Amino acid sequence: MSVNLPGTALAVAAGLSAGAAAAALCAPDRIRVRLVGTLSALLGAAGAVAGGAALAGHTYAARLPDLFALSGVTLQVDALSGVFLAIAGAVVSATSIYGIGYASGPGRGRWAQALWPLFAFSLLLVPAAGSVSTLLVAWELMALCSLLLVVSGDPASGRVREAGVWYAVMTHLGLVAILTGLLWLGAAAHTETFAGLRIAAAGISPAVRGGVFVLLLIGFGSKAGMAPLHAWLPRAHPEAPSPVSALMSAAMVNLGIYGLVRFGLDLMGAGSRWWWLTTMTLGALSAVYGIVQAAVANDLKRLLAYSTVENLGLVLVGVGAAGVFQDSGHPALAVLALAAALLHTAAHAAFKTVLFLGAGSVLHATGTRDLDELGGLRTRMPVTTGVFALGALGAAALPGGAAFPSEWLLLQSLIHGLAVPGTLVVVVLPVTVGAIALSAGLAVATFVKALGTGFLAKARSRAAEQAHEARGSMRTGMGLAAAACAALAVLPGAAGPALARATACAVPGGGPRVSAGVARQLTALGSTLWPLMLVAVTLGALVLLRAGLALVSRRAGQRATAPLWDCGAPPLTARMEYTATSFAEPLQRVFDDVLAPESDLDVTPHAESAYLVERIAYSRAVPDRVEHRLYNPVVHTVRRAGLAARALADGSVHRYLGYGFGSVVILLLVLAAAR
Amino acid sequence: MSNRAELLDLAAGLFLLCAVAILWRRDVRAQTAWLSGQGIALAAIAAILGAQDARPDLYGVAAGVALLRAALLPTLVRRAIAARAEDRESAPLINVGASLLAAVALVLLAYTVAQPLVRLEDTPAARALPVGLSVVLIGLLILVTRRKALSQIVGFLLLDNGITAVAFLAAAGVPLLVEFGVSFDLLLAVLVLRVLTARMRNLFGGSDLDEMRELRD
């Protein structure tokens, strides 16, 4: 019997996860951090091997009936799972290595370290699940581990606690939606394995399927940071320890996309058009809203969290477009859009890992995430600045960056999709193209701000002046992620065959011919654009320019040194620089109606005269408007209902017993009457 | 109809009658006497079932039930009363007449609900099944409508007698080991409730449960 590669790799990953968790709890302090980090990195590598093997065409299916009572555990790995397995595994590896250096400082307890490998393994288990019950168990394991890791940062801090509460509530409401939807689907199909659902789904009435899809869109969408349900992201990501933020933002949120693709496109066979138009609209809304908020954010990690909302919004647009095209009988276009979405997921994972790890190094070195107080890190942290710049290039979707090929492919598929008939489609597609263009432009401004005001120019605070370069293992982790970033930017064509296999799993009717077409199209993208050539030419031109300049200056004779022109008001100080706030001010003005910023000017007059000003304080905050308008009323209503319900519990034992007795009698009455 | 079936019906009828009588009497001391009677009826049910199915282990169960429910538990309750005379009044929240009417309604309900179970297998034991269900409901009614802690214990014992009777009648007897475990639980529960009653009396000077209303947050 030949060895099944994905299955073996997953088994190895399970063993490593248990070993790392045990090591975190039992190993002596001297070697603990290093041991857990190494084992977790190997666990990630095993996951990446499983994903790579699945992408290369190996499949795996297994049933372990004794592992859980009643339902057992069903596993299945195909190329679609492989994409998410490979991404999660690679991210786990890079962040675990980074975590060795990051965790050596104070503040990381044994329990937090033991949770890390469990969380990592749950990220592999979700895409490998082969039945509804296994998926739900893995999903809940993932939610609980990530929640505990979010609050492991500094449990005493009020902000961390608040972030934890928000995350806990949102993730569990999402779970309720997913649970309800999947149980409904399973009950209608009389089976819970994916293989059975795929066959039975065609016989379910469209109304039930539509209801299930709406529930799944809410549940999986909230995990993927879809627009009105994104509120947990900008709270939880900044407060979590940086490797945890990286793992959540680069690997966990992707699984929301996985759920939608797996159930919406694969198992329920694309369904109706309105499903996917809704998905596209919400995706475009998330993309624009996320990047507008990111453009005006001062907190580096909050900025990155909103950027996650933007990028996952773009992925949702791709998934939605794939559904629309599939529904209207254009499988070739559907495959192209889905390939763009999956490629963007991978690119986002790569550059977001780099950026969050870079932000973690900055936080580690300076103790602050406020861009207004940073600056001037380039000289003191050259490596971190370098990798952050590479990640920012990717996030800005400029040619040479990781996200450029995928966004370009996405735009291509949407523009070709204008041939699809239907009034709504004709309206939604061009608007979406515009939204993608707008978000790409704003992303450039956002990441110029993050890199320029955060790392370049002069330091604006003592903390930034005294920054130090990240430790060795942290540099290794960042370097690995940056290498993945560069590979995706330069050689996207290499992913062609793998993506063709993955999309063939999800788009029924795609068939090998169409998939081969996509592989060709991606390769064609590689050859017509040839990002490798673009980068080589740009670098070559820069080198030539530099050499030419040197030649010219030598011919001109002795170089004269003069003081820097400072408008006659020396000396130049850090207070004259652009800060993050001032850089974003024009954007904030443009989007004033969308953002509704709150600014406050507080003038204190002198004690002896009202006409003399002693002090002026200006403060500005950009609260999340969706949160204000949508969440606060809900929270208030729930609180009021809770207070009103206190009257039900007045402390009388008889009343409590009476509630129970009354319920039993009413139930029996219903039972008697219903027969 | 055989002799044994008649005996079973008689025991079940007595079982229900004792429950109604406990609801009727306001004096806790009298209630414990009826509780003993109910324990004997329950033991008789177990013994008759044992004779019917020729299972000698059920005689052991019957003996255990008689010992615990007819002798030990009522004695424990009675000894708690002896400490304070004023606790003898069970102080119902609704008057006895209304309680009895409610009990009639509950018995009717139990018989209606149990119909499918009886139809499933028309044996004398299955026909007696609604009796057990009725006693469960009457026990709950006592828990809800009696103020004093001691009558709560009586209600709890009634509830448990009902559950045991349903188990005997539906499963044609319970293995000795299971019955042993259940009995041990019951004994512990009654002991804990007794301790609680005594503590309440020390703290509040009475055992009216509504005095505890102030304890909530």
TrEMBL record, chain A:
It is found in: Cell membrane; Membrane. GO terms for cellular component: plasma membrane. It comes from the Bacteria. InterPro entries: ComplexI-like_HydComp, NADH_UbQ_OxRdtase, ND/Mrp_TM. It holds the Pfam family Proton_antipo_M. The chain crosses the membrane at residues 36-56, 77-98, 118-151, 163-187, 199-221, 273-292, 304-325, 331-351, 383-404, 424-457, 478-500, 529-549, 656-674. It comes from Actinocrinis puniceicyclus. Residues 129-418 form the NADH:quinone oxidoreductase/Mrp antiporter transmembrane domain. It is a multi-pass membrane protein. Keywords: Cell membrane, Membrane, Oxidoreductase, Signal, Transmembrane, Transmembrane helix. Its main location: membrane. Coiled coil: none annotated. GO terms for molecular function: NADH dehydrogenase (ubiquinone) activity; oxidoreductase activity. This is NADH:quinone oxidoreductase/Mrp antiporter transmembrane domain-containing protein. GO terms for biological process: ATP synthesis coupled electron transport. Residues 1-23 form the signal peptide.
UniProtKB/TrEMBL annotation, chain B:
The keyword Cell membrane applies. It is found in: Cell membrane. The chain crosses the membrane at residues 6-24, 33-52, 93-113, 125-144, 156-174, 180-197. It is a multi-pass membrane protein. InterPro entries: HyfE-like. Keywords: Cell membrane, Membrane, Transmembrane, Transmembrane helix. This is Hydrogenase-4 component E. It comes from Actinocrinis puniceicyclus.
